[in-house]
Amino acid sequence: MYLPMEEDDRPRLKGDCASKLAAEDLAPYSQDELDERIALLEAEIARVKSHSLKAASHRDAAEALFGRKD
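The chain above was modelled as a monomer; its predicted structure follows.
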């Protein structure tokens, strides 16, 4: 029996999504749609920054324990 893959199980597409967004024509969007897009992008920026801080903290802890790799 074949079970379809869940979205999270699929391999990630390679490429820069931010570049694709930057190339998109914004002319068809209404002011409300643009405001919604801005809010979503700001939330994504906050999420990425938070993850980056956690990753840096994890790396710093590993370097403190095992020493820095050069």
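Residues 36 and 49 are 20 Å apart (CA to CA).
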